[in-house]
Amino acid sequence: MGKSLSRKFLTAFYSSFILAMILGVGTAWNGGNPGISYLIWGSVIFFYAALFMFTYGIIVSSLLEYLFNRLVIQKNLKLTLYIILHGVFGSLVGLVSDNLSSFLIGAIAALIYSCIDVWILNIKKQEKNTKKLLYVSTGCMVLIAVILGLYGSMFNPFSFISAQFWIDAVWWSDFWSVTLYCY
C-alpha cells in the first residue's frame, strides 16, 4: 500500500506538471512577453491541477486500482478499462460544473494521469529511476518558454492586420451569402 500511494503522489506531481505545460501554451499571449506569461500562467495552472489531482485524482485512481486488482480479466482489457475509467471519472467534474471546457480538461487531465501512472508502474517493476520524466518535462517547459520569449511576438494571434482580414472575410462571407440567398 505504501509503494502504491507513493507512486500515486509521484504520478499526481508529474501529470500536474505536464498538464500545466500543455495548457500554459494557450495563456502565453495574455500580455507582456509570451515566454514569461507562459511560465507564470503555467505555474498557476500547475497549482490548481496539483490541488485537484492530489485530492480527487489520487482517491479515484486508488479506488480504481483496488477494484481492478480484485477483478480477474485479461491484462490488456484491464489496462484499457483502467485508462478509460480514469477519463470518465475525470470528466465528471465538467458534468457537475455544467461547463464543456471543464469536462474536456478534466478528461484530458485524468487520461494523462492514468497513462503516467501505468508508465511509472512499469518503470518501478523494472526497478528503474523515474527522474528522466522530470528532466524531460522540465527541459520541455524551459524550451517552450524560451521559444515563446524569443519568437512569441512573431506569432501574435490577433494583430491589427489580422483583425482587418477577419473583418473583410466576415463582411464578404455575409455579402455572398445574402447575394446567393436573394437569387
From TrEMBL:
The chain crosses the membrane at residues 12-32, 38-67, 79-97, 103-121, 133-152. The keyword Membrane applies. Keywords: Membrane, Transmembrane, Transmembrane helix. This is Uncharacterized protein. The lineage of its organism: Bacteria, Bacillati, Bacillota, Bacilli, Bacillales.
